[in-house]
Amino acid sequence: MKLWEKQTTALDRRIEAFTIGRDRELDIALAPYDVRASIAHAQMLGECGIIPADHAAQLVAQLQHITEQIEAGRFRIADGIEDVHSQLELELINALGTIGENIHTARSRNDQVLTALALLIRDRISQTTRQIAAFAESMLSWAQKHRRILMPGMTHMQAAMPTTFGLWMLAFAESLLEDIAFFDPVARLTDKNPLGTAAGYGSSFPIDRRRTAALLGFSQIVASPAAAQLLRGKLERAVAFALASVSATLARLALDVVLSLSPGYQLLRLPSQFSTGSSIMPHKQNPDVFELLRARFNRLQVLPHDISAVTTNLPSGYHRDYQLLKELLLPAWDDFDECLSIASLVLPNIEPVEGALDRPEFRAIWSVEHIHAQMRTSGESFRSAYRTIAHAIESSPNETIGGNADYLYALEDEACAEIERRLQTIVNGL
User: Fold this and answer.
1) Closest listed residue to residue 27, CA positions, set 67, 80, 86, 95
2) CB 260 within 8 A of CB 268
3) Alpha helix locations (H) across 83-183?
4) Which pLDDT score is estimated for 5?
5) Which are the contacts of 277, defined by CB distance < 8 A and separation ≥ 6?
6) How many other β-carbons are positioned within 10 Å of the β-carbon of residue 426?
7) 429: how many CB neighbours lie within 10 A of its CB?
8) pLDDT in tens, 328-376
9) Does domain 111-197+223-358 have CATH number 1.20.200.10?
10) Could you give the CA distance from residue 186 to residue 120 in angstroms, rounded to a whole number?
11) Where in the chain is the domain with CATH 1.10.275.10?
12) Cα–Cα–Cα angle for 85, 116, 193, nearest 5°?
């Protein structure tokens, strides 16, 4: 069944398969949202007198039955059916006859898919931001558990200044809280009701778009019908930017962990149940999980570009190019969720190696604190004290320069309290 069929020449089978693409597979995710929008649409049609009220009630009842099938995992898009929209209409026609044929009154698949997509994205944003916040909370717990353990801070991948494992982990937790803000504009974009804009040019039927907006939880409507189709690509790209921002943070975290587990650093330990081995070298314990997280989060950072490549230079109005946006966004979002779940499983189990700053390679890592001490005791300027300490380091290359970590512990305490406060504010708003 094809909603556009007019009983003329049959479509070539290869062209049919090519144009359907992955819709039957991916539209399963849209099904509950398409049904929800269809219920609102049918109810509005009845209230506006466009179809008889009892017909609208029958449509709503049958759509609610389809919802039960979806929730039970029994909903399928049959072979030969193009997409979820066609499947829903077919099931309504099979159950209600000509009454079912009225569900598409005053709407197009163009506004139908956009409405379902907006509802899906709105729900998934809520789920994803909660998962990110939960992961940030586990990072905060890790930092609190491993307080007062010193590690070398790096610049240019060389020993720079002392820090703590707590401050290192809190840096990534804070970055994730910043990344969550990238979902805010997506939420605003999904708060406009596109249903009733039809193919992008409205309808002569006396529909009430504000009524369906209220029924679906949108705070406003898409005012100009043509603006609805301009949301395609913009909406998906906004989600992609948010996912890419989080992915950038987590890819850098994965890289830090891989480096810190390596023999050259030896700053972290990974329990054996989370590492793999070598088929030839029996001593190996490989951090494959963090290497794959690094690669997959890096790949997700390309998602905004991939979406932009599809929609660049398209004129206004609907184009079949938009079909590819689902194929880019939905599997990538699933990939992101899986990676975040794996990171949430493994990260709390990594352990810091204590006593790292006692190693010879970090003997001069307290040099900046000694500049501060030199300024206090001698009254020298910063640059003069800098030269004094530099000379002392060069003239005694084997001497270890110690330091007092109290200021780091104070920074750690302050950061823990502040990030915990910010995290709670975000969680309360979700």
Assistant:
1) 86
2) yes
3) 84-96, 109-145, 165-180
4) 63
5) 284, 285, 286
6) 19
7) 10
8) 999 999 999 999 999 999 999 999 999 999 998 998 999 998 899 989 9
9) yes
10) 12
11) 13-105
12) 125
Q: How confident is the model at residue 2 (pLDDT cuts 50, 70, 90)?
A: low
Fold assignment, 13-105:
Fumarase C; Chain B, domain 1 (1.10.275)
Domain with CATH 1.20.200.10 in the chain: 111-197+223-358
What percentage of residues in the chain have a pLDDT greater than 90?
81
- Nearest-angstrom CA–CA distance, 274 and 271: 6
- What is the pTM assigned to this prediction? 0.92
In whole numbers, what is the pLDDT of the chain averaged over residues?
A: 93
Beta bridge partners of 162: 152
Tell how far CA 428 is from the center of its chain: 19
* Close Cβ partners of 10 (under 8 Å, ≥ 6 residues apart): none
DSSP output for 259-289: HHHSTTT--EE--GGG-B--SS-TT--B-HH
CA distance 20 to 2: 11
Whose tokens are 């930017």? That residue is: 241
HSE toward the beta carbon, residue 333, CA cutoff 13 A? 24
- Cα gap 385→326, rounded to integer Å: 61
The DSSP letter of residue 273 is: G
Mean pLDDT across the stretch 304-323?
A: 93
Residues 293, 205: Cα–Cα separation, whole Å: 51
pLDDT of 1 above 60: no
199: part of which helix (H) or strand (E)?
Answer: none
CA distance 256 to 308: 30
Nearest to 205 by CA among 287, 105, 331: 105
Q: What is the DSSP letter of 294?
A: H
Question: In this predicted structure, which of 15-24, 81-90, 217-226 has the lowest mean pLDDT?
Answer: 15-24
Q: Return the amino acid letter for 306.
A: D
